[in-house]
Amino acid sequence: MTTPSATAHDTLARKSSDDQIVSGGRLVAKALRNEGVDTVFTLCGGHIIDIYDGCIDEGIRIVDVRHEQTAAHAADGYARQTGRLGCIVTTAGPGCTNAVTGVATAFRSESPILHIGGQSSLTQHRMGSLQDLPHVDMMTPITKFAAGVFSTERIADMISMAARESFAGAYGPSYLEIPRDILDAEIPLAEARIPAPGSYRASVRSVGDPDDIERLADILVNAERPAALFGQQVWASRSLHECIDFVRALNIPAYMNGAARGMMEQGDPHHFDRTRSDAFKNADVILIVGTPFDFRMGYGNRIQVPTLVQIDLDYRTVGRNRDITLGLSGHPGAILARVASAASGRLKTDRQQLRRQWMRELQVIEESKLKALMPLFTTDQSPIHPYRLAWEINEFLGDDTIYIGDGGDVVTISAQAVRPRQPGQWMDPGALGSLGVGTGFAMAAKLAHPAKEVVCLYGDGSFGMTAFDMETAQRFGAPYLAVVGNNSAMNQIRYGQIAKYGANRGDIGNKLGDVEFGKFGEMIGGYGEEVRDAAELGPALQRAREEIARTGNCAVVNVWIDPDEYAPGTKRQTMYK
Protein backbone atom coordinates (compact mmCIF):
# COMPACT_ATOMS: atom_id res chain seq x y z
CA MET A 1 0.00 0.00 0.00
CA THR A 2 1.33 3.44 -0.94
CA THR A 3 1.56 5.91 1.92
CA PRO A 4 0.72 9.60 1.43
CA SER A 5 4.30 10.56 2.26
CA ALA A 6 5.66 8.13 -0.34
CA THR A 7 3.24 9.48 -2.95
CA ALA A 8 4.33 13.03 -2.18
CA HIS A 9 7.96 11.99 -2.45
CA ASP A 10 7.37 10.34 -5.87
CA THR A 11 5.51 13.41 -7.13
CA LEU A 12 8.35 15.66 -5.97
CA ALA A 13 10.94 13.39 -7.67
CA ARG A 14 8.96 13.48 -10.94
CA LYS A 15 8.66 17.21 -10.74
CA SER A 16 12.36 17.54 -10.08
CA SER A 17 13.12 15.37 -13.12
CA ASP A 18 10.64 17.25 -15.29
CA ASP A 19 12.18 20.57 -14.28
CA GLN A 20 15.75 19.42 -14.98
CA ILE A 21 17.50 21.51 -17.60
CA VAL A 22 19.89 19.68 -19.93
CA SER A 23 22.10 20.71 -22.81
CA GLY A 24 22.21 19.05 -26.21
CA GLY A 25 25.58 17.56 -25.37
CA ARG A 26 24.14 15.87 -22.31
CA LEU A 27 21.31 14.46 -24.38
CA VAL A 28 23.90 12.99 -26.75
CA ALA A 29 25.60 11.26 -23.83
CA LYS A 30 22.32 9.97 -22.36
CA ALA A 31 21.34 8.51 -25.73
CA LEU A 32 24.76 6.93 -26.23
CA ARG A 33 24.57 5.34 -22.80
CA ASN A 34 21.13 3.94 -23.72
CA GLU A 35 22.78 2.35 -26.78
CA GLY A 36 25.37 0.62 -24.60
CA VAL A 37 28.20 2.94 -25.66
CA ASP A 38 30.83 3.12 -22.92
CA THR A 39 33.74 4.56 -24.93
CA VAL A 40 33.94 7.45 -27.39
CA PHE A 41 36.94 7.97 -29.68
CA THR A 42 37.54 11.58 -30.60
CA LEU A 43 39.85 14.48 -31.35
CA CYS A 44 38.78 17.69 -29.68
CA GLY A 45 37.20 20.66 -31.42
CA GLY A 46 35.15 23.67 -30.39
CA HIS A 47 32.00 22.38 -32.07
CA ILE A 48 31.73 19.25 -29.92
CA ILE A 49 33.00 20.01 -26.41
CA ASP A 50 29.54 19.91 -24.84
CA ILE A 51 29.36 16.21 -25.72
CA TYR A 52 32.43 15.62 -23.55
CA ASP A 53 30.71 17.37 -20.64
CA GLY A 54 27.75 15.03 -21.01
CA CYS A 55 29.96 11.95 -21.27
CA ILE A 56 31.57 12.78 -17.94
CA ASP A 57 28.13 12.77 -16.28
CA GLU A 58 27.15 9.47 -17.96
CA GLY A 59 30.41 7.69 -17.16
CA ILE A 60 31.41 7.30 -20.82
CA ARG A 61 35.15 7.01 -21.38
CA ILE A 62 36.63 9.63 -23.72
CA VAL A 63 39.69 8.47 -25.68
CA ASP A 64 41.31 11.40 -27.46
CA VAL A 65 43.63 10.54 -30.35
CA ARG A 66 46.09 12.47 -32.51
CA HIS A 67 44.28 11.95 -35.83
CA GLU A 68 40.62 11.34 -36.59
CA GLN A 69 41.42 8.46 -38.93
CA THR A 70 42.67 6.54 -35.90
CA ALA A 71 39.52 7.47 -33.97
CA ALA A 72 37.31 6.06 -36.74
CA HIS A 73 39.35 2.85 -36.98
CA ALA A 74 39.23 2.53 -33.19
CA ALA A 75 35.44 2.90 -33.16
CA ASP A 76 35.27 0.23 -35.86
CA GLY A 77 37.62 -2.04 -33.93
CA TYR A 78 35.67 -1.55 -30.71
CA ALA A 79 32.44 -2.51 -32.47
CA ARG A 80 34.05 -5.63 -33.93
CA GLN A 81 35.41 -6.70 -30.56
CA THR A 82 32.35 -5.97 -28.41
CA GLY A 83 29.48 -6.56 -30.83
CA ARG A 84 28.07 -3.20 -29.73
CA LEU A 85 27.83 0.19 -31.39
CA GLY A 86 31.21 1.88 -31.82
CA CYS A 87 31.30 5.67 -31.56
CA ILE A 88 33.49 8.42 -32.97
CA VAL A 89 32.96 12.12 -32.35
CA THR A 90 34.68 14.68 -34.59
CA THR A 91 34.63 18.39 -35.01
CA ALA A 92 33.45 20.00 -38.23
CA GLY A 93 35.38 20.36 -41.49
CA PRO A 94 38.76 18.61 -41.36
CA GLY A 95 37.67 16.67 -38.29
CA CYS A 96 35.03 14.99 -40.43
CA THR A 97 37.14 14.62 -43.57
CA ASN A 98 40.01 13.06 -41.62
CA ALA A 99 37.61 10.37 -40.42
CA VAL A 100 36.29 9.48 -43.88
CA THR A 101 38.74 6.62 -44.52
CA GLY A 102 37.88 4.97 -41.21
CA VAL A 103 34.13 5.31 -41.77
CA ALA A 104 34.46 3.96 -45.31
CA THR A 105 36.46 1.01 -43.97
CA ALA A 106 33.63 0.26 -41.53
CA PHE A 107 31.13 0.57 -44.37
CA ARG A 108 32.86 -2.04 -46.56
CA SER A 109 33.50 -4.23 -43.50
CA GLU A 110 29.88 -4.02 -42.27
CA SER A 111 30.87 -2.68 -38.86
CA PRO A 112 28.25 -0.83 -36.76
CA ILE A 113 29.60 2.58 -35.76
CA LEU A 114 28.02 5.95 -35.13
CA HIS A 115 29.95 9.00 -36.29
CA ILE A 116 28.75 12.20 -34.62
CA GLY A 117 30.09 15.32 -36.29
CA GLY A 118 30.02 18.97 -35.35
CA GLN A 119 28.80 21.81 -37.54
CA SER A 120 28.61 25.56 -37.29
CA SER A 121 25.46 27.11 -35.84
CA LEU A 122 22.26 27.11 -37.85
CA THR A 123 22.28 30.88 -37.48
CA GLN A 124 25.49 30.91 -39.56
CA HIS A 125 24.22 28.58 -42.29
CA ARG A 126 25.89 29.35 -45.64
CA MET A 127 27.69 32.38 -44.22
CA GLY A 128 31.19 30.90 -44.56
CA SER A 129 31.67 29.94 -40.92
CA LEU A 130 34.74 28.16 -39.57
CA GLN A 131 35.09 24.55 -40.83
CA ASP A 132 31.71 24.61 -42.58
CA LEU A 133 31.34 21.78 -45.11
CA PRO A 134 28.39 19.73 -46.43
CA HIS A 135 29.20 16.82 -44.13
CA VAL A 136 25.92 14.93 -44.60
CA ASP A 137 26.30 15.01 -48.38
CA MET A 138 29.87 13.77 -48.06
CA MET A 139 29.05 10.95 -45.65
CA THR A 140 25.89 9.66 -47.35
CA PRO A 141 27.64 7.37 -49.88
CA ILE A 142 29.71 5.63 -47.18
CA THR A 143 27.09 5.18 -44.47
CA LYS A 144 23.77 3.40 -44.08
CA PHE A 145 22.20 6.56 -42.68
CA ALA A 146 23.31 10.20 -42.66
CA ALA A 147 21.31 13.17 -41.38
CA GLY A 148 21.44 16.47 -39.60
CA VAL A 149 19.81 17.20 -36.24
CA PHE A 150 17.85 20.45 -36.32
CA SER A 151 16.35 20.68 -32.84
CA THR A 152 17.77 19.97 -29.42
CA GLU A 153 14.62 18.09 -28.46
CA ARG A 154 15.28 15.49 -31.18
CA ILE A 155 18.95 14.76 -30.44
CA ALA A 156 18.46 11.55 -28.47
CA ASP A 157 15.69 10.38 -30.80
CA MET A 158 17.93 10.85 -33.84
CA ILE A 159 20.78 8.94 -32.17
CA SER A 160 18.47 5.99 -31.55
CA MET A 161 17.33 6.21 -35.17
CA ALA A 162 20.92 6.17 -36.43
CA ALA A 163 21.75 3.22 -34.16
CA ARG A 164 18.79 1.23 -35.48
CA GLU A 165 20.01 1.81 -39.01
CA SER A 166 23.49 0.60 -38.07
CA PHE A 167 22.07 -2.79 -37.07
CA ALA A 168 19.37 -3.14 -39.74
CA GLY A 169 20.22 -5.97 -42.14
CA ALA A 170 23.97 -6.06 -42.71
CA TYR A 171 25.62 -3.84 -40.12
CA GLY A 172 27.33 -0.55 -40.97
CA PRO A 173 28.09 3.05 -40.01
CA SER A 174 25.70 5.96 -39.51
CA TYR A 175 26.47 9.68 -39.41
CA LEU A 176 24.77 12.49 -37.50
CA GLU A 177 25.67 16.16 -37.85
CA ILE A 178 24.72 18.37 -34.91
CA PRO A 179 25.09 22.16 -35.30
CA ARG A 180 26.78 23.93 -32.43
CA ASP A 181 23.78 26.00 -31.34
CA ILE A 182 21.62 22.85 -31.27
CA LEU A 183 24.26 21.07 -29.20
CA ASP A 184 24.86 23.92 -26.75
CA ALA A 185 21.18 24.82 -26.23
CA GLU A 186 19.56 23.95 -22.90
CA ILE A 187 16.02 22.63 -22.63
CA PRO A 188 13.83 21.01 -19.94
CA LEU A 189 14.51 17.28 -19.89
CA ALA A 190 10.75 16.65 -20.15
CA GLU A 191 10.73 18.24 -23.62
CA ALA A 192 13.33 15.86 -25.02
CA ARG A 193 12.36 12.69 -26.87
CA ILE A 194 14.55 9.98 -25.26
CA PRO A 195 13.59 6.44 -26.34
CA ALA A 196 13.81 3.95 -23.49
CA PRO A 197 16.49 1.25 -23.80
CA GLY A 198 15.09 -1.98 -25.20
CA SER A 199 11.82 -0.38 -26.24
CA TYR A 200 12.50 0.58 -29.83
CA ARG A 201 14.22 -2.38 -31.47
CA ALA A 202 12.79 -5.32 -33.42
CA SER A 203 14.39 -8.76 -33.31
CA VAL A 204 17.07 -9.18 -35.98
CA ARG A 205 17.08 -12.99 -35.78
CA SER A 206 15.05 -13.44 -38.96
CA VAL A 207 15.05 -16.86 -40.65
CA GLY A 208 13.23 -15.82 -43.83
CA ASP A 209 10.83 -18.16 -45.62
CA PRO A 210 10.26 -21.48 -43.74
CA ASP A 211 9.92 -23.26 -47.09
CA ASP A 212 13.47 -22.19 -47.98
CA ILE A 213 14.71 -23.63 -44.68
CA GLU A 214 13.21 -26.99 -45.64
CA ARG A 215 14.59 -26.71 -49.16
CA LEU A 216 18.11 -26.06 -47.88
CA ALA A 217 17.80 -28.96 -45.43
CA ASP A 218 16.83 -31.24 -48.34
CA ILE A 219 19.79 -30.03 -50.43
CA LEU A 220 22.27 -30.69 -47.63
CA VAL A 221 20.84 -34.03 -46.59
CA ASN A 222 21.19 -35.30 -50.17
CA ALA A 223 24.65 -33.83 -50.83
CA GLU A 224 27.67 -36.12 -51.08
CA ARG A 225 30.49 -33.54 -50.97
CA PRO A 226 29.21 -30.34 -49.34
CA ALA A 227 31.44 -27.49 -48.16
CA ALA A 228 30.73 -24.25 -46.29
CA LEU A 229 32.49 -20.89 -46.10
CA PHE A 230 31.77 -18.66 -43.11
CA GLY A 231 32.60 -14.96 -43.30
CA GLN A 232 32.63 -11.66 -41.39
CA GLN A 233 28.91 -11.64 -40.61
CA VAL A 234 29.16 -14.88 -38.65
CA TRP A 235 31.33 -13.14 -36.07
CA ALA A 236 29.52 -9.79 -36.26
CA SER A 237 26.13 -11.42 -35.62
CA ARG A 238 27.67 -13.67 -32.94
CA SER A 239 26.47 -16.80 -34.78
CA LEU A 240 29.53 -18.89 -33.99
CA HIS A 241 27.94 -21.58 -31.86
CA GLU A 242 25.08 -22.17 -34.27
CA CYS A 243 27.54 -22.46 -37.16
CA ILE A 244 29.73 -24.94 -35.29
CA ASP A 245 26.72 -27.04 -34.26
CA PHE A 246 25.51 -26.95 -37.87
CA VAL A 247 28.71 -28.28 -39.48
CA ARG A 248 29.09 -30.97 -36.83
CA ALA A 249 25.48 -32.12 -37.11
CA LEU A 250 25.69 -32.38 -40.90
CA ASN A 251 29.36 -33.39 -41.17
CA ILE A 252 30.37 -30.52 -43.46
CA PRO A 253 33.95 -29.23 -43.92
CA ALA A 254 34.09 -25.60 -42.85
CA TYR A 255 36.27 -22.77 -44.17
CA MET A 256 36.51 -19.33 -42.57
CA ASN A 257 37.55 -15.90 -43.76
CA GLY A 258 37.67 -12.44 -42.22
CA ALA A 259 36.65 -12.24 -38.58
CA ALA A 260 35.25 -15.78 -38.68
CA ARG A 261 38.84 -17.06 -38.50
CA GLY A 262 39.40 -18.83 -35.21
CA MET A 263 35.77 -19.95 -35.06
CA MET A 264 36.93 -23.55 -34.72
CA GLU A 265 40.07 -24.99 -33.20
CA GLN A 266 42.83 -26.09 -35.54
CA GLY A 267 42.47 -29.73 -34.54
CA ASP A 268 38.72 -29.85 -35.09
CA PRO A 269 37.95 -32.48 -37.79
CA HIS A 270 35.54 -30.04 -39.49
CA HIS A 271 38.04 -27.17 -39.65
CA PHE A 272 39.85 -26.63 -42.97
CA ASP A 273 41.74 -23.66 -44.35
CA ARG A 274 44.35 -24.51 -47.02
CA THR A 275 42.09 -26.54 -49.32
CA ARG A 276 39.32 -24.10 -50.10
CA SER A 277 40.04 -24.07 -53.83
CA ASP A 278 40.20 -27.88 -53.87
CA ALA A 279 36.91 -28.20 -52.00
CA PHE A 280 35.19 -25.63 -54.18
CA LYS A 281 36.42 -27.41 -57.30
CA ASN A 282 35.13 -30.83 -56.28
CA ALA A 283 32.10 -30.14 -54.05
CA ASP A 284 28.57 -30.84 -55.21
CA VAL A 285 27.06 -28.25 -52.81
CA ILE A 286 28.70 -25.07 -51.54
CA LEU A 287 27.19 -22.90 -48.83
CA ILE A 288 28.43 -19.29 -48.56
CA VAL A 289 27.49 -17.64 -45.26
CA GLY A 290 27.99 -13.97 -44.47
CA THR A 291 30.54 -13.01 -47.10
CA PRO A 292 29.92 -11.32 -50.49
CA PHE A 293 31.01 -12.37 -53.96
CA ASP A 294 33.49 -9.50 -54.18
CA PHE A 295 37.07 -9.37 -55.47
CA ARG A 296 38.26 -11.61 -52.63
CA MET A 297 35.97 -14.32 -53.99
CA GLY A 298 36.75 -13.64 -57.64
CA TYR A 299 33.25 -12.11 -57.83
CA GLY A 300 31.98 -15.68 -57.54
CA ASN A 301 33.32 -16.64 -60.96
CA ARG A 302 35.88 -19.06 -59.53
CA ILE A 303 33.12 -21.21 -58.05
CA GLN A 304 31.93 -23.89 -60.46
CA VAL A 305 29.57 -26.12 -58.55
CA PRO A 306 26.21 -27.79 -59.31
CA THR A 307 24.48 -26.27 -56.27
CA LEU A 308 25.42 -22.92 -54.72
CA VAL A 309 23.57 -21.53 -51.69
CA GLN A 310 24.10 -18.10 -50.14
CA ILE A 311 23.00 -16.78 -46.74
CA ASP A 312 23.47 -13.10 -45.92
CA LEU A 313 22.13 -10.47 -43.54
CA ASP A 314 21.56 -8.14 -46.51
CA TYR A 315 19.02 -9.07 -49.18
CA ARG A 316 20.92 -6.96 -51.72
CA THR A 317 24.07 -9.06 -51.36
CA VAL A 318 22.39 -12.38 -52.14
CA GLY A 319 22.99 -13.34 -55.76
CA ARG A 320 25.05 -10.24 -56.53
CA ASN A 321 27.70 -10.80 -59.24
CA ARG A 322 26.67 -14.39 -60.00
CA ASP A 323 23.66 -16.70 -60.09
CA ILE A 324 22.89 -18.95 -57.15
CA THR A 325 20.69 -21.98 -56.60
CA LEU A 326 19.09 -20.74 -53.40
CA GLY A 327 19.40 -17.53 -51.43
CA LEU A 328 18.30 -16.78 -47.88
CA SER A 329 18.39 -13.35 -46.28
CA GLY A 330 18.42 -13.25 -42.49
CA HIS A 331 20.42 -13.93 -39.35
CA PRO A 332 23.10 -16.57 -40.11
CA GLY A 333 22.91 -18.29 -36.75
CA ALA A 334 19.11 -18.39 -36.62
CA ILE A 335 18.88 -19.77 -40.17
CA LEU A 336 21.52 -22.47 -39.67
CA ALA A 337 20.00 -23.57 -36.36
CA ARG A 338 16.66 -24.04 -38.11
CA VAL A 339 18.28 -25.89 -41.01
CA ALA A 340 20.13 -28.22 -38.63
CA SER A 341 16.87 -28.92 -36.84
CA ALA A 342 15.04 -29.57 -40.11
CA ALA A 343 17.78 -31.99 -41.22
CA SER A 344 18.11 -33.75 -37.87
CA GLY A 345 18.06 -37.54 -38.15
CA ARG A 346 17.71 -37.49 -41.92
CA LEU A 347 21.34 -38.01 -42.93
CA LYS A 348 21.53 -41.64 -44.12
CA THR A 349 24.44 -43.97 -43.41
CA ASP A 350 25.73 -43.94 -46.99
CA ARG A 351 25.83 -40.13 -47.00
CA GLN A 352 27.65 -40.13 -43.66
CA GLN A 353 30.28 -42.48 -45.08
CA LEU A 354 30.70 -40.37 -48.22
CA ARG A 355 31.22 -37.25 -46.14
CA ARG A 356 33.76 -38.87 -43.87
CA GLN A 357 35.68 -39.98 -46.96
CA TRP A 358 35.34 -36.47 -48.46
CA MET A 359 36.83 -34.88 -45.34
CA ARG A 360 39.65 -37.44 -45.20
CA GLU A 361 40.56 -36.55 -48.80
CA LEU A 362 40.63 -32.86 -47.94
CA GLN A 363 42.68 -33.51 -44.80
CA VAL A 364 45.36 -35.31 -46.83
CA ILE A 365 45.59 -32.30 -49.15
CA GLU A 366 45.70 -29.93 -46.16
CA GLU A 367 48.68 -31.78 -44.73
CA SER A 368 50.51 -31.86 -48.06
CA LYS A 369 50.01 -28.12 -48.59
CA LEU A 370 51.31 -27.30 -45.12
CA LYS A 371 54.30 -29.55 -45.71
CA ALA A 372 55.04 -27.71 -48.96
CA LEU A 373 55.03 -24.36 -47.14
CA MET A 374 57.25 -25.42 -44.23
CA PRO A 375 60.56 -24.72 -46.04
CA LEU A 376 59.43 -21.09 -46.45
CA PHE A 377 58.09 -20.88 -42.91
CA THR A 378 61.38 -22.11 -41.45
CA THR A 379 63.97 -20.67 -43.85
CA ASP A 380 66.97 -18.93 -42.28
CA GLN A 381 67.63 -16.79 -45.34
CA SER A 382 68.88 -13.24 -44.97
CA PRO A 383 67.24 -10.76 -45.40
CA ILE A 384 64.45 -12.44 -43.44
CA HIS A 385 61.78 -14.06 -45.57
CA PRO A 386 58.30 -12.60 -44.84
CA TYR A 387 56.93 -16.16 -44.62
CA ARG A 388 59.36 -16.85 -41.77
CA LEU A 389 58.17 -13.72 -39.99
CA ALA A 390 54.54 -14.83 -40.37
CA TRP A 391 55.32 -18.31 -39.05
CA GLU A 392 57.20 -16.97 -36.02
CA ILE A 393 54.26 -14.72 -35.17
CA ASN A 394 51.91 -17.69 -35.40
CA GLU A 395 54.14 -19.72 -33.08
CA PHE A 396 54.30 -16.76 -30.69
CA LEU A 397 50.52 -16.24 -30.37
CA GLY A 398 48.88 -17.33 -27.14
CA ASP A 399 45.37 -18.61 -26.59
CA ASP A 400 44.19 -15.09 -25.77
CA THR A 401 46.21 -13.12 -28.32
CA ILE A 402 44.27 -10.85 -30.67
CA TYR A 403 46.09 -10.63 -34.02
CA ILE A 404 45.74 -7.59 -36.28
CA GLY A 405 47.12 -7.25 -39.79
CA ASP A 406 47.74 -3.77 -41.21
CA GLY A 407 49.54 -3.67 -44.51
CA GLY A 408 49.69 -4.99 -48.04
CA ASP A 409 51.94 -7.86 -49.01
CA VAL A 410 53.27 -8.62 -45.54
CA VAL A 411 49.73 -9.09 -44.20
CA THR A 412 48.60 -11.10 -47.23
CA ILE A 413 51.51 -13.45 -46.56
CA SER A 414 50.65 -13.63 -42.86
CA ALA A 415 47.27 -15.13 -43.77
CA GLN A 416 49.17 -18.21 -44.96
CA ALA A 417 50.58 -18.84 -41.50
CA VAL A 418 48.78 -16.99 -38.72
CA ARG A 419 45.95 -18.95 -37.13
CA PRO A 420 44.12 -17.21 -34.24
CA ARG A 421 43.36 -19.49 -31.33
CA GLN A 422 39.91 -18.09 -30.52
CA PRO A 423 37.04 -16.44 -32.42
CA GLY A 424 37.23 -12.67 -32.76
CA GLN A 425 41.02 -12.71 -32.50
CA TRP A 426 41.70 -11.92 -36.16
CA MET A 427 41.27 -8.36 -37.47
CA ASP A 428 42.20 -6.99 -40.88
CA PRO A 429 41.29 -3.97 -43.04
CA GLY A 430 38.55 -5.83 -44.91
CA ALA A 431 37.33 -5.20 -48.42
CA LEU A 432 38.37 -1.54 -48.62
CA GLY A 433 42.01 -2.54 -48.15
CA SER A 434 42.77 0.48 -45.98
CA LEU A 435 46.28 0.95 -44.67
CA GLY A 436 46.67 2.49 -41.22
CA VAL A 437 43.90 0.54 -39.48
CA GLY A 438 46.23 -1.27 -37.10
CA THR A 439 46.81 1.39 -34.46
CA GLY A 440 43.13 2.13 -33.91
CA PHE A 441 42.21 -1.56 -34.05
CA ALA A 442 44.93 -2.49 -31.55
CA MET A 443 44.04 0.25 -29.10
CA ALA A 444 40.34 -0.62 -29.31
CA ALA A 445 40.97 -4.34 -28.90
CA LYS A 446 43.05 -3.78 -25.76
CA LEU A 447 40.52 -1.35 -24.30
CA ALA A 448 37.72 -3.84 -24.97
CA HIS A 449 39.69 -6.80 -23.59
CA PRO A 450 42.32 -5.56 -21.12
CA ALA A 451 43.29 -9.11 -20.12
CA LYS A 452 44.10 -10.19 -23.67
CA GLU A 453 47.38 -9.70 -25.48
CA VAL A 454 47.25 -7.65 -28.68
CA VAL A 455 49.75 -8.07 -31.52
CA CYS A 456 49.63 -5.97 -34.67
CA LEU A 457 51.69 -6.81 -37.75
CA TYR A 458 52.31 -3.71 -39.84
CA GLY A 459 54.01 -3.12 -43.13
CA ASP A 460 56.47 -0.26 -42.78
CA GLY A 461 54.26 1.85 -45.06
CA SER A 462 51.13 1.38 -42.96
CA PHE A 463 53.03 1.84 -39.69
CA GLY A 464 54.12 5.30 -40.80
CA MET A 465 50.52 6.37 -41.35
CA THR A 466 49.10 6.18 -37.82
CA ALA A 467 51.90 5.05 -35.51
CA PHE A 468 51.93 8.19 -33.38
CA ASP A 469 48.67 7.07 -31.81
CA MET A 470 50.59 4.22 -30.17
CA GLU A 471 51.30 6.92 -27.60
CA THR A 472 47.53 7.34 -27.22
CA ALA A 473 47.10 3.61 -26.59
CA GLN A 474 49.87 3.76 -24.02
CA ARG A 475 48.39 6.87 -22.39
CA PHE A 476 45.06 5.09 -21.91
CA GLY A 477 46.58 1.92 -20.50
CA ALA A 478 46.15 -0.15 -23.65
CA PRO A 479 49.68 -1.32 -24.52
CA TYR A 480 50.24 -3.65 -27.44
CA LEU A 481 53.04 -5.19 -29.48
CA ALA A 482 53.70 -3.71 -32.91
CA VAL A 483 55.68 -5.92 -35.28
CA VAL A 484 56.84 -4.08 -38.40
CA GLY A 485 57.69 -6.09 -41.51
CA ASN A 486 60.10 -3.57 -42.96
CA ASN A 487 61.13 -3.83 -46.62
CA SER A 488 61.42 -0.06 -47.15
CA ALA A 489 58.74 -0.12 -49.84
CA MET A 490 55.05 -0.29 -50.61
CA ASN A 491 55.90 -3.70 -51.98
CA GLN A 492 52.51 -4.94 -53.15
CA ILE A 493 52.33 -2.04 -55.59
CA ARG A 494 56.04 -2.15 -56.36
CA TYR A 495 55.76 -5.67 -57.76
CA GLY A 496 53.04 -4.64 -60.19
CA GLN A 497 55.05 -1.66 -61.39
CA ILE A 498 58.18 -3.75 -61.95
CA ALA A 499 56.19 -6.41 -63.80
CA LYS A 500 54.46 -3.85 -66.01
CA TYR A 501 57.13 -1.24 -66.64
CA GLY A 502 60.45 -2.94 -65.90
CA ALA A 503 62.97 -2.67 -63.08
CA ASN A 504 64.25 0.75 -64.15
CA ARG A 505 60.77 2.24 -63.64
CA GLY A 506 59.46 -0.06 -60.95
CA ASP A 507 60.71 1.82 -57.86
CA ILE A 508 58.98 5.11 -58.63
CA GLY A 509 56.39 6.25 -56.09
CA ASN A 510 56.71 3.21 -53.85
CA LYS A 511 60.17 3.21 -52.23
CA LEU A 512 60.47 4.31 -48.61
CA GLY A 513 63.37 5.20 -46.36
CA ASP A 514 65.26 2.67 -44.23
CA VAL A 515 63.79 3.62 -40.84
CA GLU A 516 64.74 1.87 -37.60
CA PHE A 517 61.25 1.87 -36.11
CA GLY A 518 62.45 0.16 -32.96
CA LYS A 519 63.70 3.58 -31.89
CA PHE A 520 60.14 4.87 -32.18
CA GLY A 521 59.08 2.44 -29.47
CA GLU A 522 61.79 3.81 -27.23
CA MET A 523 60.89 7.40 -28.11
CA ILE A 524 57.35 7.06 -26.74
CA GLY A 525 58.70 5.49 -23.56
CA GLY A 526 58.18 1.86 -24.57
CA TYR A 527 60.39 -0.93 -25.84
CA GLY A 528 62.04 -1.19 -29.25
CA GLU A 529 64.23 -3.68 -31.05
CA GLU A 530 65.66 -4.25 -34.53
CA VAL A 531 65.75 -7.79 -35.91
CA ARG A 532 67.88 -8.77 -38.92
CA ASP A 533 68.49 -12.45 -38.17
CA ALA A 534 65.66 -14.98 -38.52
CA ALA A 535 66.92 -16.92 -35.53
CA GLU A 536 66.30 -13.85 -33.35
CA LEU A 537 62.62 -13.45 -34.27
CA GLY A 538 61.19 -15.69 -31.55
CA PRO A 539 63.45 -14.36 -28.77
CA ALA A 540 62.76 -10.74 -29.81
CA LEU A 541 59.01 -11.23 -29.68
CA GLN A 542 59.30 -12.84 -26.26
CA ARG A 543 61.45 -9.97 -24.96
CA ALA A 544 58.83 -7.49 -26.18
CA ARG A 545 56.06 -9.45 -24.47
CA GLU A 546 57.98 -9.42 -21.19
CA GLU A 547 58.68 -5.69 -21.42
CA ILE A 548 54.99 -4.90 -22.03
CA ALA A 549 54.06 -6.98 -18.98
CA ARG A 550 56.78 -5.35 -16.87
CA THR A 551 56.24 -1.70 -17.82
CA GLY A 552 52.67 -1.46 -19.14
CA ASN A 553 54.03 0.32 -22.22
CA CYS A 554 53.95 -0.53 -25.93
CA ALA A 555 56.69 -2.34 -27.80
CA VAL A 556 57.91 -2.15 -31.40
CA VAL A 557 59.86 -4.98 -33.01
CA ASN A 558 61.16 -3.82 -36.39
CA VAL A 559 61.93 -6.79 -38.64
CA TRP A 560 64.01 -6.27 -41.77
CA ILE A 561 62.47 -8.51 -44.44
CA ASP A 562 63.47 -9.31 -48.01
CA PRO A 563 62.10 -6.62 -50.39
CA ASP A 564 62.17 -9.07 -53.31
CA GLU A 565 59.74 -11.62 -51.86
CA TYR A 566 56.05 -11.29 -52.66
CA ALA A 567 52.74 -12.99 -51.91
CA PRO A 568 51.37 -15.35 -54.58
CA GLY A 569 48.31 -13.15 -55.09
CA THR A 570 50.55 -10.14 -55.63
CA LYS A 571 52.47 -11.99 -58.31
CA ARG A 572 49.21 -12.89 -60.03
CA GLN A 573 47.78 -9.40 -59.37
CA THR A 574 44.50 -11.06 -58.43
CA MET A 575 43.36 -8.10 -56.34
CA TYR A 576 42.74 -6.17 -59.56
CA LYS A 577 41.02 -8.95 -61.49
Question: What is this structure's SSE topology?
Answer:
Blueprint: H1 4-19, E1 21-23, H2 24-34, E2 39-42, H3 49-58, E3 61-64, H4 68-82, E4 86-90, H5 94-109, E5 113-119, H6 135-139, E6 145-148, H7 155-166, E7 174-179, H8 180-184, E8 186-188, H9 210-222, E9 226-230, H10 232-236, H11 240-250, E10 254-256, H12 276-282, E11 285-289, E12 307-312, E13 326-329, H13 332-343, H14 349-377, H15 386-396, E14 401-406, H16 409-414, E15 426-427, H17 437-448, E16 453-459, H18 460-466, H19 470-475, E17 481-486, H20 491-501, H21 518-523, E18 527-531, H22 537-551, E19 555-560, H23 568-572
Parallel strand pairs: 2-3, 2-4, 4-5, 5-7, 6-7, 9-10, 9-11, 11-12, 12-13, 14-15, 14-16, 16-17, 17-19, 18-19
Antiparallel strand pairs: 1-8
Helix pairs in contact: 2-3, 2-7, 4-5, 4-17, 9-13, 11-13, 15-22
Description:
The chain has 577 residues and is α/β, with parallel strands linked by helices. Helices cover 43% and strands 16% of the residues. It contains 23 helices and 19 strands. It has a six-stranded parallel β-sheet with strand order 3-2-4-5-7-6, with helices on both faces. A six-stranded parallel β-sheet has the order 15-14-16-17-19-18, with helices on both faces. Helix 2 (24-34) crosses helix 3 (49-58), helix 4 (68-82) packs across helix 17 and helix 9 (210-222) crosses helix 13 (332-343). The longest helix has 29 residues, at 349-377. The radius of gyration is 26 Å and the shape is globular. The termini are far apart.
